[in-house]
Amino acid sequence: MVESGITPKMAETAAKRQDYASPRRQMLRGLGVVAMAGLLAACQVVPKSGGPATVAPPERPDESVGPGLPTDTDRHRVALLVPQTGANADVGTAIANATTLALLDSRTERVRITTYDTALGAAAAARQAVADGNKLILGPLLSEDVAAVAPVARAAKVPVISFSNDSSVAGNGVFIMGFVPGQSVERVVAFSRGKGHVRFGALVPKNVYGDRSAAAFRTAVANAGGTLVAVESYDRSATALTGAARRLANAGAMDAVLVADSGGNTIRAVPVIKSAGPRQILGTELWNTDSTLGTNPVMRGSWFASVSDGLYGQLAGKYRTRFGKAPYRLASLGYDSVLLTVRIARDWKPGTNFPANRLLAADGFGGIDGIFRFNDRGIAVRALEVSEIGAGGFRVVDPAPTKW
User: Fold this and answer.
1) What CATH homologous superfamily does 2-179+309-382 map to?
2) pLDDT in tens, 201-242
3) 89-126 per-position pLDDT tens digit
């Protein structure tokens, strides 16, 4: 476990013990007076000029100095469940470090975060978090870990705000903040249809991400009033990818083609897709972290939808200054989960159950990744922008909405 409080000394200690990026644009705000007030301190937390905020609240003589967790009746106990050892330790550490930055930047004196290592067993971590008196769980990262944590948290009436993008684990006290692929598919298809494209095709991998992208694509094309020409899938091999791309290219006339895969596989597939005629190439949020896409001429002019990176670029700079290396892109989820908690904590009495109904606020929340709100299934619905790939990088062609 790693404790995070609010003093600089505590934050530095937490950072030392804690062993799914491209900058652009400007701050997106939350909705309404209450939403903006709740985020005001946090939206000042990534100053363009640089160094981390410092906070020095008075010492708390009532806190225990004995073994176990400190006795603390003035602050909310919040558990952070992320991998800190094992294969995903670097991602988990980046998220944990980002929560430390958020605590410092928001200057809160109302929240204490304790980190638990899910690599040692997600259910066991959740049981320990509940036993320690935590009233809210941030994380875990992996969908299988969410499934293991959910029953433990539910029995204790402790809500879970996960960093997973698997919508199947949401609901009944579990909220997910991850970037759900279907939302970026819907956004880019609607934009493409608005530009006059009517006939659509898609190329997707044979995995969970591909299956969900294909399902979202079919729905998005129908909702936009387009015509679905073909959807081809492939196993993860160069031969299978080329074969599927060739079948799609020969499936009939089409105006736009979605490739729901990473930049590398897309670059291999696009020349084949365009061999039967020019097509507008569409992508998902996976492209947002691949700054090399613009170096390949075949990708120029392609569109994809994702969260805005304006504030993330500032967060990444501050992160490098404090921790000496670049964060993983998912670190923003940890940062924004703290901003959300701080906003709700203003009217949440320490020691009582977390008011989960406030997560369903119609005006939503805002942070590093722009505005978002949870739907009644517990899935974060995000305001996304559409970008175009050019030789110099990405250019926003349709900004994300700034209000719902």
Assistant:
1) Response regulator (3.40.50.2300)
2) 999 999 999 999 999 999 999 999 999 999 999 998 999 999
3) 999 999 999 999 999 999 988 899 999 999 999 999 99
In sequence order, the 6+-apart residues with CB closer than 8 A to the CB of 352 are 135
**At 351, is the secondary structure helix, strand, or coil?**
coil
Q: Rounded to two decimals, what is the model's pTM?
A: 0.80
What is the chain's mean pLDDT, rounded? 85
CB atoms within 10 A of CB 68: 7
- Cβ neighbors of 29 (< 8 A, separation 6 or more) are 35, 36, 39, 43, 366, 371, 402, 403
Does domain 181-306 sit in CATH 3.40.50.2300? Answer: yes
Residue 79 · residue 134 · CB < 8 Å: yes
Q: Are strands 76-82 and 111-117 parallel, antiparallel or unpaired?
A: parallel
